[in-house]
Amino acid sequence: MTEHGGGGQLRVESVDMVYELPKGGSVQALKDVSFDLEQGRLLTLLGPSGCGKTTLLNILAGFLAPTGGQVTLGGSAITGPGQDRGMVFQQGALFEWLSVEKNISFGPRMKRADKSGTSARVEDLLKTVGLGGFGEKMVYELSGGMQQRVALARCLANDPAMILMDEPLGALDALTREKMQSLILELWSETGKTIVLVTHSVEEALFLGDILFVMAPRPGRIERTYELPFAKMGLEVEPRELKRSPEFVDKREEILSLIWDMEEQIMGHEGEA
Ligand SMILES: Nc1ncnc2c1ncn2[C@@H]1O[C@H](COP(=O)(O)OP(=O)(O)O)[C@@H](O)[C@H]1O
Ligand SMILES: [Mg+2]
After folding, report:
1. Which residues line the pocket of ligand 1, CB cutoff 6 A?
2. pTM of the model as a whole
3. The pLDDT of residue 266 is above 80
4. 38 by DSSP, 3-state: which?
5. Which atom number of ligand 1 is nearest to the Cα of residue 45?
6. Are 167 and 15 in contact (CB under 8 A)?
7. pLDDT of the residue at 7
8. Domain 41-66+77-84+161-273, CATH homologous superfamily name and number
């Protein structure tokens, strides 16, 4: 495994994010968010729409500067985008006019990396994400699931210490989604990278999260933290079987009712307005 410059512990300290609205007023998207995450953990962020998941991810990516608090990775402040962090979006972030191979090698080519080294690496990555032999295809020739495999490979090509994913499987059909969940677990265990993954799905957050934050809105914050065994188990046990196990089902019900209560409160407040 390679050593990463800029990797190490992620530390989020008292982060606030207030958006000023163009017509006046403001939205507190995050309030006093603090946590530490060791290198190599897989954190899932779950919560109702508007609770600040994307905002938090964008702050970790360095696309947004928080209005309060600070974020460090391996002791260095995150002040902008960097090679040590990679982002995978829901869909549509690939270069449609380039081949699969050209998409994956984009980062290394920008860095003027050695050509033969890069093409060997791309071959490797294609196999890693289950797309061996697809290098010459154009992106638009691929299904949604295959495109997300390319997005993962493109991210891995830059060898980031931390991968940020914003609902990466949200647009996929159920079967493809399950296969991709297993792929993410395999990549996680094989690469030792830190992953922060946003999802709307309770089941996905439970299955993939080695640690899970349930977030709450208004203001966006971490409502509850779960340390979970399922991600590691999912590498050994058949996923469907694991998701049917009493332990998994109990946790799913617990989190669902937590989120239900939250939604009810939100609806209640909206009723008052
Ligand atoms: N650029 C922006 N300007 C103003 N408000 C924003 C902006 N981006 C997000 N928000 C608001 O901040 C809150 C959190 O949004 P977001 O991080 O997208 O939540 P999530 O990803 O959990 O749905 C929401 O109320 C949203 O409307
Ligand atoms: Mg979002």
Report:
1. 19, 21, 27, 29, 49-55, 220
2. 0.93
3. no
4. coil
5. 22
6. no
7. 81
8. P-loop containing nucleotide triphosphate hydrolases (3.40.50.300)
From 19, 26, 56, mutation site for ligand 1 pocket: most ligand atoms within 8 A of C-beta: 19
pLDDT for 5? 47
Tokens (6 digits) for 229: 């065994």
CB 211 within 8 A of CB 226: yes
Q: Are 51 and 215 in contact (CB under 8 A)?
A: yes
Domain ranges of the chain: 41-66+77-84+161-273, 93-159
Q: Which residue has the higher pLDDT, 47 or 2?
A: 47
β-sheet bridge partners, residue 85: 162
User: CB of 115 within 8 A of CB of 101?
Assistant: no
Q: For residue 48, give the ligand 1 atom closest to its CA.
A: 22
Q: What is the DSSP string of 44-106?
A: EEE-STTSSHHHHHHHHHTSS--SEEEEEETTEE--S--TTEEEE-SS--S-TTSBHHHHHTH
CA–centroid distance, residue 195 to ligand 2 (Å): 17
Q: Residue 162 to residues 92, 195, 235: CA-CA distances in angstroms?
A: 21, 6, 20
Q: What is the rounded CA–CA span in Å between residue 14 and residue 11?
A: 10
Nearest atom, ligand 1, residue 215 CA:
22
Query: Which whole-number Å values give the CA distances from 21 to 25, 27, 29, 58, 80, in the listed order?
Result: 6, 7, 12, 18, 23
